[in-house]
Design goal:
This is Alpha-beta hydrolase superfamily lysophospholipase. The protein is α/β, with parallel strands linked by helices and 331 residues long. The chain has helices at residues 60-68, 101-113, 126-137, 160-173, 189-194, 218-233, 268-274, 299-316; strands at 7-9, 12-25, 28-37, 45-50, 72-77, 118-124, 144-150, 181-182, 216-217, 241-246, 282-287. A 9-stranded mixed sheet has the order 1-2-3-5-4-6-7-10-11, with helices on both faces. It has a two-stranded antiparallel sheet with strand order 8-9.
Length: 331
């Protein structure tokens, strides 16, 4: 791993980034990018956040909530995503989810070198699937104190025929034809519900997180399917795990107000049913009115998300009570 240093980040003066060079893969040069708050909380508690598919880290408010509760905050833009996507690469493309393990290895090694001793690994959607598999396989899994999974991608949100026949067949073809591209035919309503140019309240870089998700290749589908099969068979994660998800899935076709109060990407029944298979210490809780990325829900809902999260962390990390900083009043 080549030596690098923190540089200013696209999120402004409160954040900085460190680009980490990785060994080249079948598409050429590879990097991942570690982002951190410039002013970190004192102490050994820290979180490493891993984003979802067609995504990157941009949630400033989430970082500040962790800081307010005494956690150092780091986020990782995985290879071929966001800050780490290079012109010669296919966006978001891998052939095996284990390709992400060196990115997590490097991020965790840097965090530990900076004094982080009690690390919570947090993953959203596809990042939740990657985080769970890393906690099972990764070389630094023993340094993870807990996992927080925000609407993890544990199964395809498809009809029964596609899930049981279509996806397995396509995944099998991906072994020999990994570069065959599948059409990007997912609905755009979820993205429209987020970005302030459309119906949402959030501002982020649309070339890195477009309204219409990036197309995928058969090799990527094979990698995801293999991860889903492992979860279905059951993992054996020793860490305490919190899984939060919306209490409902969007059911109406086309645009509707449901996208502001339900998961418009995954089937929440799959998350609820499969999460207990991650290990013996899994807490699963539905968040009423939550959207797919729970921390981007409406203000009252995301406040509830943080309340549940930090109460749970206080419980599973009892010697490290996460009390929020209090605003200083007038003297």
């Amino acid at each position: 791993m080549a030596e690098s240093h923190y540089q200013p980040d696209v999120l402004g003066p409160d954040f900085e980034q460190r680009v980490i060079e990785q060994p080249a893969d079948y598409e050429g040069m590879v990097v991942c990018t570690l982002v951190r708050l410039r002013e970190q909380a004192p102490g050994p508690r820290a979180v490493l956040y891993v984003h979802g598919f067609t995504d990157y880290f941009f949630q400033r408010d989430m970082a500040r909530e962790y800081h307010r509760h005494g956690f150092r905050f780091y986020a990782l833009d995985l290879r071929k995503y966001g800050r780490s996507w290079r012109p010669h690469q296919t966006a978001n493309n891998v052939r095996d989810l284990a390709e992400y393990y060196p990115d997590l290895d490097a991020a965790l090694a840097l965090m530990r070198a900076e004094g982080c001793a009690t690390i919570v690994l947090s993953g959203h959607s596809t990042g939740g699937l990657i985080a769970a598999l890393y906690a099972q396989d990764g070389t630094q899994r023993q340094h993870l104190a807990a996992l927080f999974l925000n609407s993890p991608f544990l199964d395809m949100h498809q009809n029964w025929l596609n899930r049981t026949v279509g996806v397995p067949l396509a995944a099998r073809l991906g072994r020999w034809l990994p570069d065959v591209q599948l059409p990007a035919n997912l609905p755009t309503e979820y993205g429209r519900s987020l970005h302030r140019q459309y119906q949402g309240e959030w501002d982020y870089h649309l070339p890195w997180k477009p309204i219409e998700v990036f197309p995928v290749k058969l090799g990527w589908l094979r990698a995801i399917h293999a991860g889903h099969r492992r979860v279905a068979r059951g993992l054996h994660l020793a860490q305490p795990i919190l899984v939060l998800h919306s209490d409902q899935t969007v059911t109406q076709a086309g645009w509707s107000e449901q996208y502001f109060e339900a998961d418009g990407v995954l089937n929440v029944c799959h998350i609820r049913e499969l999460s207990p298979r991650l290990g013996p210490r899994v807490t699963v809780q539905a968040i009423a009115g939550g959207i797919h990325d729970l921390v981007l829900s409406r203000p009252a809902v995301r406040a509830r998300v943080y309340q549940v999260l930090f109460e749970w962390l206080n419980k599973v990390l009892p010697d490290l009570v996460c009390q929020p900083e209090r605003s200083k009043g007038p003297a």
